[in-house]
Amino acid sequence: MRQCLLGLMFLHLCAIGCGPDREAIPQVTDQMAFGMGVAPSQLQHGRDLYMAHCNECHARVAPAKIDPEYWREILPHMSKNAKLSQSQLRDLQTYLIAAHGTVYQLDQQH
């Protein structure tokens, strides 16, 4: 009985501590870029924009906390407030979607 309880406690702790870090703002990796079919420099530019601009009006939201479809919907509006160009918006959006997928270990091309 004790082993069963210890096993259940271990599984519970692992579910809490071993899951994806939804608070993370992932660093750009070659694998992330490959999964999105873009150069790492484009993703890095998007991450740099995120770090520089997305806390001017509000606290940064970890990419994993917002569904990629919602990122696509809200970023054009917010990028106008931040005075981002279309290419900057594209890089930012690509990074956020890639970062979301990285946290959840999604296949980016499907």
Q: Descriptors for this entry?
A:
110 residues, single chain, 5 helices, mainly alpha
Could you tell me the strand content as a percent range?
under 5%
Please count the beta strands (DSSP E, at least 2 residues each). 0
In the predicted model, the low-confidence regions spanning at least 5 consecutive residues are: 4-17
Backbone shape: globular
Report on this model:
The chain is mainly α and 110 residues long. Helices cover 64% and strands 0% of the residues. The chain has helices spanning 2-17, 30-36, 40-53, 68-81, 86-104. It is globular and about 30 Å long. The N and C termini lie far apart (45 Å).
Compact overview of the structure:
By secondary structure, the chain is mainly alpha-helical.
Produce the secondary structure layout.
Elements: H1 2-17, H2 30-36, H3 40-53, H4 68-81, H5 86-104
Helix pairs in contact: 2-5, 3-5, 4-5
